[in-house]
Amino acid sequence: MPDMPELAASFTAALHDAGIAVGPDRTRSFARALTLLEPSTTRELRHCALATLVSDREQIEPFDAVFREVFGGPADRGAQRGQPGDPARSLPDAVPGRVPGSRKATADGRGREADTPPREAPVPLAASPLDRLANRDFADLSAEELARLSEVMRTIVLRTPTRLSRRRRTAHHGARIDVRRTLSVSRRTGGYPLRLRRFVPRARPRDLIVLCDISGSMEPYARAMLQLLYCAVRAAHAEVFTFATRLTRLTPALRRAGPDDALARAGRAAPDWSGGTRIAECLAEFNERFGRRGMAHGAVVAIISDGWDTGAPADLATHMARLSRVAYRVVWVNPRTASPRYRPLVAGMAAALPYCDAVVSAHNLAALDDFTAALSAPRHRR
């Protein structure tokens, strides 16, 4: 039987490439189902995958296509009714990637298993099991594990709450009358507006802004989080800044970079990597150059830092108060809060805490669920 975590990571990565949204939570559910049920046939494996990875009827067809490509399963639903002991649908015993032989159509049009030996299918396997990566602290991961982590992070979707834009769309039960469209349509009825046209504002996701601490105390976590921020820039059109002794806008570098050289470009763009920490000064620069110009107005702002600051706590509190007045929601990501013995005794963290809507750890892959939930939650002031 192949390694279940590797099997789950490989299959869910193929589903994501096919356009099916499969996050780390669904991947973990699929891995648990494989471990508990230990399916021995492709039919049982397909049922496990359907129950944990598919959430919509429209996803079944592309799901089956990926399943056939990876495991060589039958193409039609009727073929799924085979006996559990059918060797043509049995899972491989030793080599991950070995799948049953293909089906050939006979003259009467009915499918029959061909008398061909099993074939090898190119199934991509993760070097590190997903369960081991999911609960390991980002600071303890090697460079190879960080590279594998980026493959999983590409499946994570960062969503923000919606806001009403100035654009509008036609609606049958809108609260406001679209006078221009009503008059335009009334020309068909001799100028009499027999039917009122209405509209409602369009809803669009709020902007996402991330400020990531790359000082010496945050370097191990910053390398892992930048993998996620690279995906956020591409998918959610987020704005990413790094700070240590200075503020650097990293969005252009991440947009042009590929997944393999994102960290290299980030290091070249931010010369203060692994330096000291001046959170208050960098936050003041952000408020002055970007926040007041409208970038932070109504946006969700995430600050990734452990709170160590060489400046005065009163200055950080002042600039956090300015940011909280214009931002829709402020989420502080502090990996140190994962420890049960953590207390906000650091002066910088204590000064910023009253102006945060949520504080999460995001110190490992499993804890990223709390981070994504905090970004999409409605506004709530402490």
Structure description:
The protein is an alpha/beta fold. The chain folds into 3 domains: 4-104 and 116-134, no CATH class; 163-204, no CATH class; 208-376, Rossmann fold (3-Layer(aba) Sandwich). The protein is 39% helix and 15% strand. It has helices at 4-17, 24-37, 42-53, 60-71, 130-134, 143-153, 179-186, 219-235, 251-256, 262-269, 279-291, 313-326, 347-352, 368-376, and strands at residues 98-99, 103-105, 111-113, 119-120, 162-170, 176-177, 198-205, 208-213, 239-243, 247-249, 300-304, 329-333, 358-360. The strands form 4 sheets. Strands 10-9-8-11-12-13 form a 6-stranded mixed sheet. Strands 5-7-6 form a 3-stranded antiparallel sheet. The longest helix is centred in the middle third of the chain and has 17 residues, at 219-235. It is flat and about 75 Å long. The two termini are 51 Å apart. The model is unreliable at 74-128 (pLDDT under 50).
Number of strands: 13
Top CATH class of the largest domain: Alpha Beta
- Spatial arrangement of strands, main beta sheet: 10-9-8-11-12-13
Low-confidence stretches: 74-128
| Ends distance | 51 Å
Largest sheet: 6 strands, mixed
What is the third-level CATH name, the topology of the largest domain? Rossmann fold
Assembly type: single chain
> What's the CATH superfamily of the largest domain, by name?
von Willebrand factor, type A domain
Q: In percent terms, what proportion of residues is strand? A: 5-15%
Write down the overall mean pLDDT.
76
Outline type: flat
- Please indicate the count of domains: 3
SS-based class: alpha/beta
Order of helices and strands: HHHHEEEEHHEEHEEHEEHHHEHEHEH
What CATH architecture of the largest domain would you give? 3-Layer(aba) Sandwich
Task: Round the Cα radius of gyration to an integer and report it.
Answer: 26 Å
Number of helices: 14
Region (Disordered): 74-127
Protein name: VWFA domain-containing protein
Pfam family, one: VWA_CoxE
Domain VWFA: 205-373
